[in-house]
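Side project, low priority. Logging it here so it doesn't get lost.
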Amino acid sequence: MEIRLASSLDCERLRRLAERDTARVPDGPLLIAERAGELLAALSLDSGSAIADPFAPTAQIVAVLRAYAAPSAMSRRTRVGSIIDLLRTEAEHADLARLRGRPDQHRRRQSRPQ
């Protein structure tokens, strides 16, 4: 199972997951859990609300997402807020590069030595 922050590329999959769960996609940055490319659950880091696949055993997966997002877990890692801000900035740069027709520019900029 992979746990990561959702990106703009996950929007459609999140919408379908929320539809299956008869819920709305939670607001704010989302932690998602997926297995073999299948989105199983998502947790809002702002509100703590979650959506999950009702046709799969996801109660423990949501519990894992909650534990991962808990303040005690955050104190053991780099501040999640800083990571989210960094990922948002990087995602915005990637989206802008794609919109401008230069999808590889973002990757090239990252790979240059500092």
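Brief comment: Residues 1-76 form a domain with the Aminopeptidase fold (CATH 3.40.630.30).
Revisit when time allows.
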